[in-house]
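Q: My labmate handed me this sequence with no annotations at all. I'd like to see what the chain might look like in three dimensions before we decide whether it's worth expressing. Could you predict it?
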Amino acid sequence: MRLPDEPDLPPQLNIVPMIDVIFAILAFFILSTLFLTKQEGLPVNLPTAITGQSQSASAPITVTVDQKGKISLNNQIVTLDALGEQVKKLMDSQSQALVIINADERVNHGRVVAVMDKLRQVEGAKLAIATQQP
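A: Here is what I predict for the chain of 134 residues:
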């Protein structure tokens, strides 16, 4: 029931709360996509190379040698002696697989060569050394 003194106001739609909700959802999606990048290895300081080329593979196997010389295979610490067998298990039924070596630039050169030697003994393993652009 309307009173005769009441002014006739048109209905209003306040969209400010809706804009706030949309902005919050947008901020959530932007921040969540930042964490969707695939980490292929442990954080190491890669050496730089001007002539480095990108290698494409469906599911590369990543071997990381950190600054202290510890070896990790797909983020799992492994010994040098067990490295070849673990790579063979990861290759499963594939005839060839790309094995990317992420070696810290300060690691002993002999340690990297020992890792490469073990990986070259695995039949079908194609080696690549990760670098970054200068």
